[in-house]
Write a structure and sequence with these properties.
The chain has about 325 residues and is mostly helical. Helix 1 packs antiparallel against helix 3, helix 8 runs antiparallel to helix 13 and helix 12 packs across helix 13.
Length: about 325
């Protein structure tokens, strides 16, 4: 029984129109993110600051705090949405998300060890260690599941094993080391609050390469969705397609997790929402996820700033929004299955 309800496939013209609408929504949400916060900035002042930067307090808030935070929210949202779509296509598991294959757990373990063993507190070093851990988790996953062709079932089982082992190590480290616990607290929840230009510059190359690989894998993944034998008949190279897709997932989910911490729901439910409109064509699914997932993440970040007197981390907001929406998707899928 499939979780995702049968989708009415939109015509190409409707898909293009929908993508344009999504881009417009992304621009609107980005402007909202720059304007809204503990200190709201009027639209007129915002436009003046954007087009004519000066030395005012508003200019500092916009250019040094809000714009980098918004841009990294867009980059991370696109990466998690696309990574989730790739994972679901690769494992043929509608419940797959960026945490299924152990990439998030690898980033968390490396970050915890970097703090506890090496005493690292610099954000730049922290990001690189977390990304390195995600990459090593991806290598370990393929080494375990790669024998015999890295089938979807083997990938899912190996990912669960790697994730469980790494999560246990992370929990042991932060329970035994108070410094690691204090440093990891903000990161494990998932937050854009500390994101700045440095973080964006560090992770953007990896995210860009991952997105390019994801776009390139759209057609081969469409062939594999019909089954291994049908995919071979259509000219898809099974091992190469799975390896390149896994590399793309590692780059996207690893860099995103390293930058802002593990975020739930974004990579899980957005691909389902997208397929309800585009159908199963992974080329369109990837494009739509790259646009709509940032809309969700940046909007959740804005809500976290205004929902309470103290700012709520975006990871908490995405979980609060995501749980009921995904339960609705599951019930809707069962009702139509």
């Amino acid at each position: 029984m499939s979780v995702t309800a049968p989708a009415r496939v939109a015509a190409p013209s409707r898909r293009v129109f929908g993508l344009v609408c999504g881009l417009v929504a992304l621009v609107v949400v980005a402007l909202l993110s720059i304007a809204v916060g503990s200190r709201s900035i009027p639209l007129g002042t915002l436009l003046d600051v954007l087009f004519q930067r000066d030395g005012s307090d508003s200019a500092f808030v916009v250019w040094e705090l809000r714009i980098p935070r918004t841009l990294i929210g867009i980059a991370v949202g696109a990466s998690l949405g696309v990574a989730g779509a790739l994972m679901q296509a690769l494992t043929r598991n509608p419940l797959a998300d960026p945490g299924l294959l152990g990439v998030n757990a690898g980033a968390s373990t490396a970050a915890a060890l970097a703090i506890s063993v090496f005493g690292l507190t610099d954000l730049r070093a922290f990001v690189w260690c977390a990304f390195g851990g995600a990459a090593l988790a991806g290598v370990a996953l393929y080494a375990i599941a790669g024998r015999g062709g890295a089938s979807p079932v083997r990938l899912a089982l190996a990912g669960a094993a790697v994730s469980a082992a790494l999560t246990g190590i992370t929990q042991a480290v932060i329970l035994l080391d108070q410094q690691a616990l204090d440093q990891m607290r903000f990161w494990t929840v998932g937050s854009l609050e500390r994101a700045g230009w440095t973080t964006l510059v560090e992770v953007l190359p990896f995210l860009a390469v991952g997105l390019l690989l994801a776009v390139a894998m759209g057609r081969p993944l469409n062939a594999l969705s019909l089954g291994d034998e049908a995919g071979k008949a259509l000219g898809a190279h099974l091992g190469r397609t799975r390896l390149v897709t896994l590399v793309a997932i590692t780059l996207l989910a690893g860099a995103a997790t390293a930058a802002v911490g593990p975020l739930v729901f974004v990579g899980l439910a957005v691909p389902h929402m997208v397929r309800a409109f585009t159908g199963p064509d992974e080329r369109w699914v990837v494009l739509y996820c790259a646009v709509l997932a940032p809309v969700l993440l940046v909007l959740a970040d804005v809500l976290g700033r205004v929902m309470a007197r103290e700012e709520i981390d975006v990871g908490v907001v995405t979980a609060l929004l995501g749980a009921p929406v995904f339960l609705w998707l599951v019930r809707r899928g069962k009702a139509r299955a």
